[in-house]
């Protein structure tokens, strides 16, 4: 450790000591001395039993003080298993970061702090940003793989029972209903199942596919993951070092299947969720599921988790004359293989990620391919794109990276960071953009300051991470046309304003998807869907709406997104479910103003006071 970082280590310890003292003594005034006026805090369940961000000194001081009375944090220390306190590179000693850990009445947690220089502060630095997250629950230790006592079988009541018999009996649910029913067996459902398994919660994952991973196998032929290998870890199981940097969809599907089986997850394939309703009297769900043999079973889980994918049902816009077109029209979600269109004239409507991937697949299989652009698109080379995750950040372990990125996902901070990254990304991609513009592609420019990763969270549309299509467009292999030059579709193709007609055999509509709220409605009805509201995108509180946090419907949860999002979100959601099942907190739902009902702080303090009286 150099002299500069040694000094920073000392400052971090002093700041943490004062922070601990202020919380343990309930001194809000002392807290105001530790943060800037413009500062931010994001908590993942550790203090608030919610996924929540707080902006500004007075709000942070008030919220932390109130939460501390309920959870009683203590035993703060610099985290021994994280990067030691250090000056952040390229900040000229003006900014430092460090990790810490702590305990509460409910469990243990971790924290991450960014300190900035302030000569008026007690230790010469104040906190610009704080992130906290729960890591375990007291009295509810995670199950350790391989710890079952082999001598007496896998269950004390079943001496001699072997592993296969244990897994089969446990997963059959012949004699019980699961406490948690997870609908969807992709990376979202598997991540939640793995976390609940470790917490000892009785859960069941159901999926209508014949095999785990089928939701990936059924997608278009050329698809591969657009995030680098290191980002795609599922909970508690590392990927093979022999995997390529960007995994093809079929290899990933096989890995998903292997994961489900190796982790001994309770998983029913070929099982379809039909409908669900909440029984207020029993505070449980009434769920109808159709089993592989066609039998319909009624289950009564306490909690229901929707893990049905990243997006909702296909959306096809009402384009002029589209219904008159006599050729084939297929949505990108139904497109399979470019070979099916060899020798044909095909137009891809849209210029997002799926549109580019499909256009390249068509081109590579001998189709005459064109793209119809309706609005500007953000295009980034895939290597440049993945620098968005570690912009100015050194290599670190997955747990440390997850903790850091979770803390940084405070909307103002995230926006600021994405603007800085996007400015650099545009410089790195200048030659690529110039070539695409020359070829006719409209590239998002100054109006797009926050870049593709911001779009992932806000809309999941409007960007392409280049995996080979852009050079083909630049070389003229795939032509780009524009909607403003179009009159309408006609039976034989596309007619332009000047009267010319482009003959077409097929259209691939890469035009996006409806909001996941439509899937909520399909599962549990319009009344609950309306109450829950839109899924995804940033809400008024800065958080991604309805992602791995209490919704407006008691005991109804939603998980979605990429592999990394699901891995991180599933852990915090599992803690919330376990805490509610175990009575640590009451069943929480979100009121119309975004607050939790009942207030977890008041409920915890009231329960503690009652227990003291008893």
Low-confidence stretches: none
Q: Strand count, sense and closure of the main sheet?
A: 7 strands, mixed
Instruction: Give me the CATH superfamily of the largest domain.
Output: FAD/NAD(P)-binding domain
Rg from alpha-carbon coordinates: 26 Å
Helical/strand content category: alpha/beta
Mean pLDDT: 91
CATH class of the largest domain: Alpha Beta
Query: Which descriptor suits the 3D outline?
Result: globular
CATH architecture of the largest domain: 3-Layer(bba) Sandwich
Percent range for β-strand residues: 15-25%
Determine the number of helices (DSSP H or I, runs of at least 4 residues). Answer: 18
Oligomer: single chain
**End-to-end separation:** 53 Å
Bin the helical content. 25-40%
Indicate the CATH topology of the largest domain: FAD/NAD(P)-binding domain
Number of domains: 3
- DSSP strand count: 27
Summarize the structure in words.
This protein has 614 residues and is an alpha/beta fold. It has 3 domains: 3-137, Nuclear Transport Factor 2, Chain: A (Roll); 165-312 and 516-613, FAD/NAD(P)-binding domain; 322-509, FAD/NAD(P)-binding domain (3-Layer(bba) Sandwich). 32% of the residues lie in helices and 22% in strands. The chain is built from 18 helices and 27 strands. Strands 1, 2, 3, 4, 5, 6 and 7 form a 7-stranded mixed β-sheet that branches. The protein has a 5-stranded parallel β-sheet with strand order 10-9-8-14-25, covered by helices on one side. Helix 5 (187-198) packs parallel to helix 17 (563-581). 41% of the residues are buried.
């Amino acid at each position: 450790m150099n002299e500069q970082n040694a000094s920073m280590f000392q400052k971090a310890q002093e700041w943490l000591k004062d922070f601990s003292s202020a919380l343990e003594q309930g001194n809000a005034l002392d807290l105001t001395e530790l943060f800037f006026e413009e500062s931010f805090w994001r908590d993942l369940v550790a203090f608030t039993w919610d996924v929540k961000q707080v902006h500004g000194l007075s709000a942070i001081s008030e919220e932390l003080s109130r939460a501390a009375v309920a959870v009683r944090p203590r035993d703060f220390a610099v985290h021994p298993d994280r990067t030691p306190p250090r000056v952040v590179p390229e900040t000229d000693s003006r900014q430092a970061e460090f990790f810490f850990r702590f305990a509460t009445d409910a469990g243990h947690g971790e924290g991450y702090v960014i300190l900035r220089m302030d000569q008026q502060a007690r230790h010469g630095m104040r906190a610009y940003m704080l992130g906290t997250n729960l890591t375990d629950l007291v009295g509810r230790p995670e199950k350790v793989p391989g710890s079952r006592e082999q001598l007496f079988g896998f269950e004390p009541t079943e001496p001699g029972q072997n592993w296969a018999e244990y897994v089969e009996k446990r997963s059959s649910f012949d004699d019980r209903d699961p406490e948690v029913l997870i609908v969807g067996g992709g990376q979202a459902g598997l991540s939640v199942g793995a976390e609940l398994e470790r917490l000892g919660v009785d859960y069941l994952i159901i999926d209508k596919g014949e095999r785990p991973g089928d939701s990936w196998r059924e997608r278009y032929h050329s698809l591969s993951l657009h995030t680098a290998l290191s980002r795609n870890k599922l909970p508690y199981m590392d990927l093979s070092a022999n995997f390529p940097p960007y995994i093809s969809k079929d290899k990933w599907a096989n890995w998903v299947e292997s994961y489900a089986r190796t982790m001994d997850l309770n998983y029913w394939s070929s099982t379809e969720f039909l409908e669900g309703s909440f029984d207020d009297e029993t505070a449980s769900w009434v769920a109808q599921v159709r089993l592989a043999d066609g039998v319909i079973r009624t289950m009564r889980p306490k909690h229901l988790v929707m893990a049905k994918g990243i997006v909702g049902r296909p959306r096809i816009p009402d384009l002029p004359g589209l219904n008159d077109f006599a050729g084939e029209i297929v949505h990108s979600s139904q497109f399979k293989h470019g070979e099916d269109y060899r020798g044909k004239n095909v137009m891809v409507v849209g210029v997002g990620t799926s549109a580019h991937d499909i256009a390249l697949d068509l081109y590579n299989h001998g189709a005459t391919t064109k793209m119809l652009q309706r609005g500007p698109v953000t295009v980034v080379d895939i290597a440049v794109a993945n620098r968005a995750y570690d912009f100015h950040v050194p290599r670190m372990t997955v747990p440390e990276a997850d903790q850091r990125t979770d803390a940084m996902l405070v909307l103002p901070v995230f926006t600021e960071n994405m603007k800085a990254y996007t400015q650099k990304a545009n410089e790195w991609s200048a030659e690529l953009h110039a070539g695409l513009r020359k070829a006719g592609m409209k590239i998002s420019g100054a109006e797009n300051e926050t870049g593709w990763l911001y779009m992932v969270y806000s809309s999941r549309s409007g960007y392409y991470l280049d995996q080979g299509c852009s050079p083909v467009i630049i070389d003229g292999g795939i032509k780009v046309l524009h909607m403003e030059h179009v009159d309408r579709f006609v039976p034989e193709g596309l007619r332009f304003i000047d009267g010319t007609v482009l003959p077409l055999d097929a259209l691939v509509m890469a035009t996006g998807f409806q909001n996941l709220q439509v899937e909520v409605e399909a599962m549990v009805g319009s009344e609950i869907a309306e109450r829950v509201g839109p899924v995804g995108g940033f809400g008024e509180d800065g958080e991604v709406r309805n992602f791995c946090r209490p919704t407006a419907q008691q005991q109804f949860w939603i998980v979605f997104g990429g592999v990394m999002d699901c891995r991180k979100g599933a852990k915090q959601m599992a803690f919330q479910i376990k805490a509610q099942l175990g009575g640590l907190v009451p069943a929480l739902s979100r009121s119309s103003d975004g607050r939790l009902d009942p207030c977890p702080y008041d409920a915890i303090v009231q329960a503690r006071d009652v227990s003291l009286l008893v």
